[in-house]
Amino acid sequence: MENNVNITPGFAGGEHITDGPLTTTVVEQITPGLIKNDVDERVIKLKPMATPVDQISRMIGARKCKSMIVEYYSVDTKKPTTRMMGSLTATDTVHPGGKAIYIITTQDDNAFSVSDTILVPGVNGVKAQDMSAATGLVLYVTEVVDKNKIKVIAVNGEEDGTVKGSIPNATLVRMARAAGELDVLTPQYEALPKKSRNYCQIFKAQVEQSHIMRQSAKEVGWSFVDQEEVAITDMRMCMEKSFMFGSMARIMQGERGDEIMFTGGIWSQAENSVSYREGEITAEKITEIMKKAFTGSASGSSRKILFAGSSLISDISNLDATRVLAAKDKVTHWGIDFNEIHSKFGTLLVIYSEVFDQCEHARDGLIVDPEYLTKYVQQPMKAEKIDMKMVGTRNTEAVVITEASCLVLRNPKTHTRVVFKD
After folding, report:
1. Which candidate, 326, 400, 378, 363, places its Cα nearest to that of 63?
2. Rounded Cα–Cα distance for residues 305 and 286 (Å)
3. Which H helix or E strand runs over 208?
4. What is the average pLDDT score of the chain?
5. What is the model's pLDDT at position 105?
6. Residue ranges of the alpha helices (H) in 246-359?
7. What is the pTM of this model?
């Protein structure tokens, strides 16, 4: 588009208008870019999905460690149940109390001690005097013959202590010990914690710009601090993936004489697991999952966190769960918004985790007991400024962001993987 004005070159290379007004059209024609467009100085920083695992571990509080190798101990109680191998085997001996003695072989070694009582669910005992109903068959351990072989009498069997039927492969539930009036001692019970380990991984990010770039005027307020923020956001997102799905390993650096340590993710640390198939996410299935996550060896806190991929979140969101479950609006814990699912077993704090989708676990989830989630830090996250010009490398200024840390699941049986099966 031409303008009806006379433009005269200046002495030093500028342009002059001699017979018309100075308009924006003329300026754009003569000096393109002199007038700035309406640029939004609030530069939109596209941040990825929040990093809930890293966030929660930081809010709970990290433990300082002095080594890159973290060793920790977990302890639980003896297994509450086991199974009988075969059937009750009668012996030729009789207990001093007049009851028949049987031999039982159990699936687990050292599951029972002398004076333990054992419930056999599903097998009725004889109704005791002054009681209105019979309970399951109750046995009493009189002797440990071998690691998995014990002698028992039937507390509520027939009058002579005999038991009707063979009850093969029955479930055996460990109950309280029973001592006599003159007993002072009882078989010892000691528990030794199980030792586990994980490696701290050195996480790094680097932001660098030239001195000239730093001194140059910017069209918007995009500073070096903004670049650091983006770098830290990306670093934390990558750390989240390592904390969840990383594999513990050590690799030597050859001639350098040092090594790289890789942290193990909490996904592989959890020892409890429950699976589901296509179309199985119903209110009943959610109740089953919560039962698995809050009872038996998985029992721990009454409130746990479900980190899940988008497909599992979608299936849960589509449920009409009012018959069995009660879902509340968002609640905030550790600075993160969760949806709550309540059941008689406990409460699940549900949150979508973007890393599950990125790592192709969109249909999976991990239920974590926050009371047993611990972060160990060998080097807290810090930013160190380095003048590359001073060290003779290049005319730039750099900031290196570093953290050396790992996550561990203490009492790993209290955490549950939710796995989709094809």
Report:
1. 378
2. 14
3. strand 201-210
4. 78
5. 92
6. 266-269, 283-294, 310-317, 354-358
7. 0.65
Sketch the domain layout of the chain as residue ranges. Answer: 1-35, 36-75+194-422, 81-177
> Which CATH number is correct for 81-177, 2.40.240.10, 3.90.1150.10, 3.40.50.720, 2.40.10.170?
2.40.10.170
**Residue spans of beta strands (DSSP E) within 13-133:** 15-17, 63-64, 69-74, 81-83, 89-94, 100-105, 116-124
Contact residues for 121 (Cβ-Cβ < 8 A; gap 6+): 136, 170, 171, 173
Compute how many other C-beta atoms are within 10 angstroms of the C-beta atom of residue 255: 5
Residues belonging to the chain: 422
Residue 75: pLDDT over 80: no
Phi–psi pair at 306, nearest 5 degrees: -105, 110
* 155 within 8 A of 163, measured Cβ to Cβ: no
| Residue 361, helix vs strand vs coil | coil
Q: Are strands 7-9 and 89-94 parallel, antiparallel or unpaired?
A: unpaired
CA distance linking residue 12 with residue 15, whole number of Å: 9
Q: Which of 36, 26, 30 is nearest to 10 (CA)?
A: 30
* 274 beta partners: 418
Residue 311's pLDDT is what?
Answer: 94
Q: Round to the nearest angstrom and report the end-to-end CA distance of the chain.
A: 65
pLDDT tens for 270-304 read 989 999 999 888 888 998 999 999 988 788 889 99
Joined tokens for residue 120: 């056999």
Euclidean distance between CA atoms 104 and 93, whole angstroms? 15
